[in-house]
Amino acid sequence: MNTFEIVDGTFRAYKKKNNKISLNLRTYLLVYTNTGFRLSAYLKNARAWLTLPEETEIEIEELSFSDNVIRNHPGYMMVHDFWLRTVFDKQELKSCVADLKLMFHLSFNGHPIEEPEYIKRKVFIGMESTGREIPG
Asked: Which of 56, 93, 106, 114 is deepest in the core (most CB within 10 A)?
Protein backbone atom coordinates (compact mmCIF):
# COMPACT_ATOMS: atom_id res chain seq x y z
CA MET A 1 0.00 0.00 0.00
CA ASN A 2 1.20 3.51 -0.78
CA THR A 3 1.89 5.92 2.07
CA PHE A 4 0.44 8.84 0.07
CA GLU A 5 -2.66 9.36 -2.03
CA ILE A 6 -4.46 12.39 -3.47
CA VAL A 7 -8.24 12.49 -3.35
CA ASP A 8 -9.09 14.34 -6.57
CA GLY A 9 -7.02 14.78 -9.70
CA THR A 10 -8.84 17.56 -11.54
CA PHE A 11 -6.63 20.41 -12.74
CA ARG A 12 -8.20 23.73 -13.68
CA ALA A 13 -6.49 25.32 -16.69
CA TYR A 14 -6.62 29.04 -17.43
CA LYS A 15 -5.20 31.10 -20.27
CA LYS A 16 -3.16 34.01 -18.94
CA LYS A 17 -2.90 37.46 -20.53
CA ASN A 18 0.66 36.63 -21.63
CA ASN A 19 -0.76 33.62 -23.57
CA LYS A 20 0.71 31.08 -21.17
CA ILE A 21 -1.41 28.37 -19.57
CA SER A 22 -1.81 28.17 -15.80
CA LEU A 23 -2.68 24.75 -14.32
CA ASN A 24 -4.02 24.54 -10.77
CA LEU A 25 -4.97 21.56 -8.62
CA ARG A 26 -6.45 21.91 -5.16
CA THR A 27 -7.18 18.65 -3.41
CA TYR A 28 -6.40 16.66 -0.26
CA LEU A 29 -3.31 14.61 0.49
CA LEU A 30 -3.94 11.42 2.45
CA VAL A 31 -0.96 10.19 4.48
CA TYR A 32 -1.46 6.63 5.68
CA THR A 33 0.27 6.22 9.02
CA ASN A 34 -0.14 4.54 12.38
CA THR A 35 1.10 7.64 14.23
CA GLY A 36 0.66 11.39 13.88
CA PHE A 37 3.60 13.62 12.93
CA ARG A 38 4.30 17.06 11.46
CA LEU A 39 4.60 16.41 7.73
CA SER A 40 6.98 19.32 7.02
CA ALA A 41 9.44 18.00 9.62
CA TYR A 42 9.91 14.65 7.89
CA LEU A 43 9.20 15.30 4.21
CA LYS A 44 12.69 15.71 2.71
CA ASN A 45 11.52 16.29 -0.83
CA ALA A 46 8.34 16.38 -2.90
CA ARG A 47 8.07 16.89 -6.67
CA ALA A 48 5.46 16.45 -9.38
CA TRP A 49 5.38 16.02 -13.16
CA LEU A 50 2.50 16.14 -15.60
CA THR A 51 2.59 14.39 -18.98
CA LEU A 52 0.11 15.73 -21.50
CA PRO A 53 -1.43 13.54 -24.24
CA GLU A 54 1.12 14.67 -26.84
CA GLU A 55 3.87 13.38 -24.50
CA THR A 56 5.00 16.80 -23.28
CA GLU A 57 6.26 16.35 -19.71
CA ILE A 58 5.99 19.41 -17.49
CA GLU A 59 7.60 19.67 -14.08
CA ILE A 60 5.17 21.28 -11.66
CA GLU A 61 6.61 24.56 -10.36
CA GLU A 62 4.73 24.83 -7.06
CA LEU A 63 3.80 22.00 -4.72
CA SER A 64 2.46 22.90 -1.29
CA PHE A 65 0.51 21.36 1.54
CA SER A 66 -0.92 22.44 4.86
CA ASP A 67 1.21 21.57 7.84
CA ASN A 68 -1.87 21.40 10.01
CA VAL A 69 -3.84 18.20 9.72
CA ILE A 70 -7.33 18.84 8.34
CA ARG A 71 -8.61 15.54 9.65
CA ASN A 72 -6.83 12.91 11.71
CA HIS A 73 -7.98 9.31 11.79
CA PRO A 74 -5.80 7.95 14.64
CA GLY A 75 -3.94 4.79 13.71
CA TYR A 76 -4.98 5.11 10.09
CA MET A 77 -4.33 8.37 8.21
CA MET A 78 -3.78 12.12 8.28
CA VAL A 79 -5.51 14.44 5.78
CA HIS A 80 -3.78 17.64 4.56
CA ASP A 81 -4.78 20.37 2.11
CA PHE A 82 -2.65 19.96 -1.03
CA TRP A 83 -2.00 22.28 -4.01
CA LEU A 84 -0.14 22.02 -7.31
CA ARG A 85 0.38 24.97 -9.65
CA THR A 86 2.42 25.52 -12.77
CA VAL A 87 2.53 27.87 -15.75
CA PHE A 88 3.86 26.83 -19.14
CA ASP A 89 4.19 28.11 -22.69
CA LYS A 90 1.42 26.71 -24.81
CA GLN A 91 -0.82 28.64 -27.12
CA GLU A 92 -3.77 26.29 -26.79
CA LEU A 93 -4.84 23.52 -24.47
CA LYS A 94 -8.05 21.56 -24.71
CA SER A 95 -9.61 19.64 -21.85
CA CYS A 96 -7.92 16.24 -21.67
CA VAL A 97 -6.71 13.38 -19.52
CA ALA A 98 -3.03 13.45 -18.55
CA ASP A 99 -0.59 11.44 -16.42
CA LEU A 100 0.48 12.84 -13.06
CA LYS A 101 3.57 11.53 -11.29
CA LEU A 102 4.20 12.56 -7.69
CA MET A 103 7.35 11.90 -5.66
CA PHE A 104 7.39 12.07 -1.87
CA HIS A 105 10.52 11.38 0.17
CA LEU A 106 9.79 10.90 3.86
CA SER A 107 12.75 10.58 6.19
CA PHE A 108 12.28 9.79 9.86
CA ASN A 109 15.91 8.99 10.65
CA GLY A 110 17.92 10.54 7.80
CA HIS A 111 19.25 7.16 6.67
CA PRO A 112 20.83 7.41 3.18
CA ILE A 113 19.11 4.30 1.82
CA GLU A 114 15.58 5.62 2.37
CA GLU A 115 13.89 5.69 -1.01
CA PRO A 116 11.29 8.18 -2.26
CA GLU A 117 7.80 6.94 -3.04
CA TYR A 118 6.31 7.57 -6.50
CA ILE A 119 2.61 7.73 -7.24
CA LYS A 120 1.21 7.72 -10.78
CA ARG A 121 -2.39 8.43 -11.67
CA LYS A 122 -4.58 9.73 -14.45
CA VAL A 123 -5.87 13.27 -13.97
CA PHE A 124 -8.34 15.45 -15.82
CA ILE A 125 -7.35 18.89 -17.10
CA GLY A 126 -10.39 21.09 -17.55
CA MET A 127 -9.89 24.22 -19.62
CA GLU A 128 -11.94 26.95 -17.96
CA SER A 129 -14.19 28.74 -20.43
CA THR A 130 -15.01 31.76 -18.33
CA GLY A 131 -14.10 34.14 -21.14
CA ARG A 132 -11.79 36.03 -18.81
CA GLU A 133 -8.05 35.88 -18.68
CA ILE A 134 -6.01 35.88 -15.52
CA PRO A 135 -3.14 38.36 -15.18
CA GLY A 136 0.21 37.36 -16.69
From this structure: 106
